[in-house]
Amino acid sequence: MQEKKIELSFITAHLSELSEQEQQLVANAKSSLKTAYAPYSGFLVGASVLLENGEIINGSNQENVAYPSGLCAERVALFYAGARYPDVKVKKIAVSVHSKNFEVTEVVSPCGACRQVMAEYEEKQEEAIKVILHSPTDEVLIANTVEDLLPFMFKSPLLKKH
Ligand code: THU
After folding, report:
1. Any domain includes 29
2. Residue 161 domain-assigned?
3. CATH (domain of 61)
4. Is 74 an active-site residue?
5. For a FRET experiment, which of 4, 66, 112, 143 has its CA 20 to 30 Å from that of 22?
6. Counted domains in the chain
């Protein structure tokens, strides 16, 4: 038996410390909160994806009365980016949140399903995706790669018979 350790790395910062481009991406995510459809949770999420071609794709969470039919903001944005620009790499994703019911004071980390989807695109494009999580208080948490958000991820080679 052997205990092993893994190291994860992330950066915390104030929004004002980010580059102009990243602040713009966060501004897009914040502005996408307006398009969230979240009548059941009152929890609004905006996600903006920056592509290698400079395009920004915006998404927001879309809920449904049959709860599991809804989709998180991150997957709305990433799936649309994948459908619209299948061969263009994803450079960064920014996520912003707002609750209608309480004050959110911390960054909100993407759910496991969204991390898995981010991880798949990262693996497909063989290049890291930078994840920028933004709180309503303008604190940000940055992971330079999705791998740091999802250790032990299920990867496509695991599907193949060796
Ligand atoms: N939600 C997201 O859009 N992204 C996340 O990473 C976490 C949760 C949404 C799903 C649902 O509409 C609401 O937030 C409450 O869970």
Report:
1. yes
2. no
3. 3.40.140.10
4. yes
5. 112
6. 1
Ligand 1 contact, 59 CB (< 6 A): no
For ligand 1, atom 5, name the residue with the nearest CA: 110
Q: What is the mean pLDDT of residues 102-112?
A: 93
Mutate to test the pocket of ligand 1, among 72, 75, 118, 135 (most ligand atoms within 8 A of CB): 72
Residue 76 is part of which domain span? 11-151
Given 74, 103, 127, 147, the catalytic residue: 74
Residue nearest to atom 1 of ligand 1 (CA): 72
Give strand ranges (E) for the chain: 11-14, 43-51, 56-60, 90-99, 130-134, 139-143
Average pLDDT, the chain: 96
Helices 112-125/73-84 angle, 10° precision: 30
Instruction: For residue 109, give Cα distances in angstroms to 97, 127, 149, 150.
Output: 10, 21, 9, 11
Share above pLDDT 70 across residues of the chain, in percent, rounded to a whole number:
99
Tokens 């009152």 identify what position?
A: 42
Is the beta carbon of 36 within 6 A of some atom in ligand 1? no
Q: Which atom of ligand 1 is nearest to the CA of 70?
A: 12
